[in-house]
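step=predict obj=STAS domain-containing protein n=106
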Amino acid sequence: MDDGLSATLDATDPGTVVIRLAGELDLATREQVVLAVRAVLPAFEPGELVLDLDEVTVLDSAGIGALVSCWKLANGAGCTLTLRNPRPLAYAQLKLTGLLDVFALT
């Protein structure tokens, strides 16, 4: 896979929007995720926003910061942000930082 990040939107379930991320969520790509969430929230007004991390190969501290920014945006819009399918390393990083207590996880 090339360096970078791609996002695929799935809004087929009423009230829920899923953004499937693939690639590296790091300093170079963090703003892409935040911009995607900023665009999705007013366009769809979901009750739940799911970030699917199954294909995220790198998650560094800047990427974690981007997830926190997305959580703040969703929370401010009255929306629940859920993380789905984090790989073992990403899960360990979220646990180490205490963010598993902040994010809903499926």
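step=describe
Strands lie at 5-10, 16-25, 48-59, 80-84, 104-105.
step=end
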